[in-house]
């Protein structure tokens, strides 16, 4: 234990929460069926509807991190033996395949190289080839490569029986995402990135037709904890039923983070992330860093970058943390050992993060 070291969290998440979200952690703990807690959850659901851009009634934060949101959606919507078409162009597309396979689904992979965006038409063609697929899943913002996958064209799935599932763990609150306009049936995120709260909650939303699919299951959801039907009966039913001891502390914090985001405005927050991320990317390129994500589909809130010729990434990253208290992430998969992942998300998406990081890097490289 080295004490309470303050960090500038510029990795792929968690990011530094908004001050209001940290202050909220000190509020009194409430019971998980306390009327005040349930009222707080109802407010969070309303906030999340705005942030997701949806009217979906089933919109709630699942206890757990982004992976809990992923597992809750896959476990609740897929029955064993059903087909899932999954876009894979990075680490988190792979994780979707892994989780769906463990749940007993038959996975059809549609691939693109790491660093390139998924071709939406290739995904739609895969659905035409497998019209009985229960769902098609894609990662909106691939945190492993900094690639933004186009989701809007997948709205065409509305006219089919295949549900559209979108991973918005890094996307939500960071770049444009419109659940209802884009025909998204199921979407999950995480509290610790662009929503500006600590890790611990995974916002999830399901469209009415996804709820119908879930309610029509013949095989119960294998996970009790992540059964979205049971969670719906806990949080949002007229007479809430005990399901698990949910954390009011985390709920207060997420409520504060979402409040800050909505006060700034959804589109203004997207614009802030774009402006700050682009500033960093331009400065990195000038210093000889390379961009992993293809131009045109580059995220602003997460930059995956190769280091200048002859510079080893791990020692530099360690020095950045040890000397300046600045965290950035290492590369994943084929980019392990030769890339950084830099997040400018939520409260960290501001000019001072860029200035601090570049100043430290310049000093270490001089
Ligand atoms: N999906 C994406 C795109 C992510 O970036 C992450 C985490 O970084 C996850 C899923 C898993 O989320 P968590 O690590 O919060 O469980």
In CATH, the architecture of the largest domain is: 3-Layer(aba) Sandwich
Order of the strands making up the biggest sheet? 2-10-9-8-5-3-4
**Structure ligands:** pyridoxal-5'-phosphate
Order of helices and strands: EHHEHEHEHEEEEEEHHHHEEHEEEH
Helical content class: 25-40%
Q: Please, how many domains? A: 2
The class by helix and strand makeup works out as alpha/beta
| Percent of sequence in beta strands | 15-25%
Q: What shape does the CA trace take?
A: globular
Instruction: Supply the CATH superfamily name of the largest domain.
Output: Type I PLP-dependent aspartate aminotransferase-like (Major domain)
- CATH domain topology of the largest domain: Aspartate Aminotransferase, domain 2
Low-pLDDT residue spans? none
The CATH class of the largest domain is identified as: Alpha Beta
- First CA to last CA: what distance? 32 Å
Task: Write up what this structure looks like.
The protein is α/β, with parallel strands linked by helices. It folds into two domains: 106 residues, Aspartate Aminotransferase, domain 1 (Alpha-Beta Complex), CATH 3.90.1150.10; 244 residues, Type I PLP-dependent aspartate aminotransferase-like (Major domain) (Aspartate Aminotransferase, domain 2, 3-Layer(aba) Sandwich). It is 38% helix and 16% strand. It contains eleven helices and 15 strands. Helix 4 links the parallel strand 3 and strand 4. The longest helix is centred in the C-terminal third of the chain and has 21 residues. The radius of gyration is 20 Å and the shape is globular. The protein binds pyridoxal-5'-phosphate. Pyridoxal-5'-phosphate (PLP) binds next to helix 3.
